[in-house]
Design brief:
The complex is a heterodimer of chains A (320) and B (633).
Chain A: E1 13-16, E2 30-33, E3 52-58, H1 66-72, H2 79-90, E4 94-98, H3 110-123, E5 128-131, H4 136-149, E6 156-160, H5 166-175, E7 178-182, H6 187-199, E8 207-210, H7 220-235, E9 246-248, H8 256-259, H9 263-284, E10 288-291, H10 296-308
Parallel strand pairs in A: 3-4, 3-10, 4-5, 5-6, 6-7, 7-8, 9-10
Antiparallel strand pairs in A: 1-2
Helix pairs in contact in A: 2-3, 3-4, 4-5, 7-9, 9-10
Chain B: E1 3-7, E2 11-14, H1 21-27, E3 46-55, H2 58-61, H3 67-71, E4 74-76, E5 81-89, E6 116-122, H4 134-144, E7 153-154, H5 157-169, E8 173-181, E9 184-192, E10 200-206, E11 210-217, E12 223-230, H6 240-274, E13 281-288, H7 290-296, E14 317-320, E15 333-336, H8 346-355, E16 363-369, E17 372-378, E18 383-389, E19 409-415, E20 422-426, E21 434-435, H9 437-449, E22 468-470, E23 475-480, E24 491-494, H10 495-519, E25 526-532, H11 534-538, H12 541-546, E26 558-562, H13 564-574, H14 578-588, E27 589-591, H15 598-607, H16 619-632
Parallel strand pairs in B: 1-5, 7-9, 10-13, 13-15, 16-25, 18-27, 19-21, 25-26
Antiparallel strand pairs in B: 1-2, 3-4, 3-5, 6-8, 8-9, 10-11, 11-12, 14-15, 16-17, 17-18, 19-20, 22-23, 23-24
The chains are: A alpha/beta (320), B alpha/beta (633).
Amino acid sequence: MAEPSEWTGTIGRVVLGATRGEGGTRSVQYCIGGSRDLPFLPDEVPCGKRPLIAFEICDDPALWPPVVREQVGDLAGDPAAWAREAEKAYGADLVRLHLTSTHRRQVADLEGVKRTVESVLAATTLPLIIEGSGDPAIDSDVFQRCGEAGAGERLLLGTAEADRYRSIAAAALAYGHAVIAQSPIDINLAKQLNILLREIGVPADRIVIDPYTGALGYGFEYSYSVMERIRFAALKGDADLAMPVLSAAPDSLTVREVRDAAPAERQERALSWEFHAAFPAAVAGADIVCVRHPLSVKRVRDACSALSAGLKGTPAQGGG
Amino acid sequence: MPSVTFLPAYRKIAVDPGTTILAAAQKAGIQMNVVCGGQGKCGKCVVYLKSGLADFDREKYGKYFTPEERENGACLACQTMVEGDVQVLIPESTLIQEQKILVESLGIATDLHPSVWKYALDLQPPTLEDPSPDLTRLLWGIQKKGGPVAEKIYAPLEVLRSIPAVLRDSGWKVTATVALVPGGYRLINVEKGDTAAFLYGAAVDLGTTTVVVYLRSLVDGKVLAVTSNYNRQISCGEDILSRVNYARKGGLDRLQQLAAESINTALTAAANTAGIDREEIYEVVISGNTVMTHILMGIDPAYMIEEPYVPVVRRYLTASAHRLGIGVNANAGLFVFPAVSDFIGGDVVADILAAGMAEREEVSLLIDIGTNFEVVLGNREWMFSCAGAAGPALEGGEVLFGMRANPGAIEKISLDLETLDPAYETINRVKPRGICGSGLIDLIADLLRACVIDRTGRINTSIRSPRIRQGAHFPEFVVAWAKETAIGKDIVITENDVKSLIMSKASILAACFTLMGAAGIRRDEITSIFFSGAFGNYLNKEHAIIIGLIPEVPITRIRNIGNGAVEGANIALMDRKKRRIVDDIARKIAYIELNAEASFMDEYTRATFLPHTDLSLFPDVERLLDACRIRRG
């Protein structure tokens, strides 16, 4: 029997997705956070399944990793169908929709953004994460529209950063959503952003920390140690860091090692590269890990289950 | 030889063809602003070519000028070569201007134990019955007057040569001057008559920018005159690094001369004010940063700016004045404060002495802020020090409307937290031209309290006020409307300015916390925070805490020691016994290299927030900000 935990702090809880009873249309609601110990220890007892695996899709695949486009084919041009596939075929817990169409210059059709969000909400019953334009000039309008389209659904909106957080916070507060707070691989900057959000009225139970995850070989070890430090600080009682953590290493599928791989090996190389950031992130304590390769969902899930169950064997071989 | 005529003063000087206008100006004794040391990098030495032939690459340096300036023949003095007779107009902004130079200091009471004495003697002439030699007679006289024992006084040859005539010409009534030097007592002068009352000493702060001199009587300790002037080395570059580079290029002798001249100018002014003869100054105590004191002593500072950054000496230095070209009595002694490291120089050791922190049981923190900052933490048993670059923002550099503490600088400011209308004071009470460091700190503290900026310094543009607007590149806050100013433009502070200032203040606060961490000292254990230097004097202490420039301690624990460098020099001049403490400080102080300290970067990031990421370290500020937030809703 393990020694009882001596930590004084607990990770705060964030609820994502609203079912009919809660005023939404989702089939499931998740509670993330609540952990009282280090990841995968018996006393951790998070308030829900950990980690949740989010599958990332987009509404304009031009900038999306070629290995994914190759794998999903026509789905890449149809966010609604893609989201449905993520739920039914890939087995994802969440769908993370990147509104990449807003990354172009001169975005004219902001109403189209709203329609996309509505269609994805209709196509899947999973809770959604929605990523805005990343451009302060239009983010306010984008969040306004997706906030409105998903009103009552308890979306997770991304991404607030220290130099642009007001518009996303406003949308989250107005429509009852939570926000992703991203900082560049630094525990102090993560804490500062949480304070900024708190000071403009975003409650702690609406904040998910994204400490930014570098791909394996491209800074992942820094991200890992920051995730670890955030968990330590939270368990030691730092309320400004006691939020659940989201990890995504979007560069995993476009690193040189994947791009330069022989065509026959490229898919497996990509899958492997993504797995080796996503699974360790779960080990470091991430409550949500995001993946883009359809086969990564099962592989990460199997590895985590194996770890939870205390099974022997190398997790890397656990799935796929 | 071509001649260069400088307007508007019509000062004329002949130079060789190919000489730069900057060199010509230096030769003519005109002090120009040269931040980069004449490398064409700072664009400060703007002059207008009014007539004549000179070679200047307008294409290459065009970026430093407005179209209007270009049309009027603007050139950079350091990059313009004279080819024939020329007339050059020097605009006011290019000349080094009058600046607030700190001369006041605490005036700590110090016992008078000088290291030089005068003895007025009335000796018996020798006779056949008493044929003892002149020197013996003289030294016995000194001993009988309460001076050192005769055998212990060394008489150098040059003094010995003067003795027979002086004794006889004066009818055996002479005044002997004896100094205590590292080798023991030394007879340094014998003169006619009774001049015992005319014994003076000077305490000198040899700063990178300014020289301050205190002239004092060594008989009663009275301050007779205080003078200051610019360090003439400025014409060889404004900052330390450009000076070292100048020295590297064979300019060490020139820099040494300029340092001595700068001191001499201040000494002459002081002697004239006091109505004394410089020949009666028998002792000079000098404090200065490591590079300045090395240069003054003619020691090459070039190796100090390379890894591993070691100074040449870490103990006090003495020399006789004439060897360094200091214009006082040729046999007067110089005492130069020791440097600890390249960054912790004799000026900081003098600060420590002035603050008295090396003699106290309680722990104090000493902060000296300039472009570089030094922080010392400790008590009579131990001391940690560190230094770093705060960046130019706190001195008004790299801030859009920032300026040094010159006339027209807004030095104090407070905002009406409701209407956001500012009330400000400028130096010399003239129309504002810009904002200096103390004004910038006031402004940031009030912008934070008014919730105009968030804790990262970002301006909340959703607040409806004519003073908050989007500028050309960044959001900005209007401090003074064009019609109120002397420059015909709105004076603003931009979001980028606020962020530069936050980075500057963060490095200082992080340095404080790094030392406290190294020593295991909590902020409530710090019984005093001493500010040294001009910056601390004009600074609003409460605002310095609100923005997190320094750790939060009760305001009553914060004190300005003013110009600690010259104060320390004064103490060592008055009381030679304190010089032992000086060497002791230099020996025991531990220097922490911040770049090599793993925790510093973490502390720095934590400090890049107003006032700090961890508000529990700033409980009073936390209450204040809460109250403000509630008021604004």
